[in-house]
Design a protein that fits this description.
Elements (H helix, E strand, L loop, with lengths): L1 H37 L4 E2 L6 H14 L6 H8 L5 E2 L1 H9 L13 H13 L1 H11 L3 H12 L8 E2 H10 L3 H4 L13 H28 L7 E2 L12 H7 L14 H14 L8 H11 L3 H29 L1
Antiparallel strand pairs: 1-2, 3-4
Helix pairs in contact: 2-3, 5-7, 6-12, 7-14, 8-10, 11-12, 13-14
Length: 324
């Protein structure tokens, strides 16, 4: 009697254990099916799918910033609930075509009018910056217009997560879980080269960004920018911020969301790269293409600058006529 009861209880335990194993297996299966079928657009750092890659990236950053940034600071960033992986950023980068962007919109009369008004509103500042750096105030304004529509569109993506995502996407074993575009094949050598190049670049930008945030006591997740990590009015990446950022108002911090610092930083970038006011149009174009490696971009900037100069000439002539 007791033996039968014991056997029954043992059978119950085996049955429960078997059910738990089956449920666990089904849970794992559902997890991987979810990631492979639904391909989430965002994963947080503690997600089992990316956690090992995140840990490896964090350790690499600690090693490369050893002696520069405290490990506790890096640990704090990587334990933040705001840290997220966006696989679609790398996927978008693989299909991005700069030459197809609608730059013509910036030559519309309404935009030129706004740019001219901006120049009039900041006339003294722009003239001072032009004298100090030897860069046409019209070119500075034109870049400001094209980059962020005179500060109206600076971007909404957390810059830290952009570089974090691109760096993490260098792991093709991870990235393949999210690719559903038939035009993207990880067997394509050219695509692999782009992934490797952008991932390494993003990793280095991540290192620069951590140093900038630490030095300026900024919350690294509070910096918002474009889908590819450019931020502020001039749309600088972290390396550009460190090299070309200029503290025009001398408050001790380069603030790319401050008009004086932003305009001076644009001018400093061009001057450092060899811009000269008396250079021919083709030479200026080559320098502007260092700001953004796009011929349509450079042509648009120069076309805007020319229109702004023409408007200035008309205003001066009209003023002379009135005075006479």
């Amino acid at each position: 009697m007791h033996f039968s009861r014991f056997s029954f209880k043992l059978s119950q335990r085996k049955l429960i254990l078997g059910l738990l194993i089956i449920l666990g297996f089904l849970g794992i299966l559902i997890f991987f099916l979810f990631h492979s079928i639904f391909k989430p657009s965002k994963l947080y750092a503690d997600d089992p799918l990316i956690k090992p890659y995140v840990e490896k990236l964090k350790n690499s950053i600690k090693k490369d910033l050893n002696g520069t940034i405290p490990e506790e600071y890096i640990d704090k960033i990587f334990s933040s609930s705001e840290l997220a992986y966006f696989p679609n950023i790398m996927i978008k980068r693989l299909t991005w075509k700069e030459a197809e962007l609608p730059y013509d919109q910036f030559l519309e009369k309404s935009r030129i009018f706004r740019a001219k008004k901006f120049m009039n509103d900041h006339k003294e500042l722009l003239e001072d910056i032009e004298k100090v750096f030897g860069v046409d105030k019209e070119v500075i304004t034109a870049i400001f217009l094209v980059e962020t529509n005179l500060g109206k569109n600076t971007g909404k993506f957390p810059v830290f997560n952009v570089f974090f995502s691109l760096a993490l996407s260098g792991n093709k074993k991870l990235l393949k879980n999210f690719i559903n575009d038939p035009n993207i094949s990880l067997k394509d050598e050219k695509i692999n080269k782009v992934i490797e190049k952008r991932s390494k670049w993003a990793y280095n930008e991540l290192l620069y960004l951590i140093q900038i945030a630490y030095k300026n006591k900024w919350d690294p997740f509070s910096i918002k920018g474009s889908i590819f990590g450019a931020f502020g009015y001039p749309q600088f990446v972290p390396k550009s911020y460190l090299i070309y950022g200029y503290d025009w108002d001398r408050d001790g911090v380069v603030d790319l969301y401050s008009i004086p610092d932003a305009l001076a930083s644009i001018a400093n970038y061009l001057k450092t790269e060899g811009y000269k006011m008396d250079a021919d149009k083709n030479t200026k174009k080559k320098v502007i293409m260092k700001y953004n490696i796009s011929e349509p971009y450079a042509n648009t900037v120069l076309a805007i600058a020319e229109k702004l100069k023409n408007q200035e000439s008309v205003l001066v002539r009209n003023q002379n006529i009135e005075n006479n």
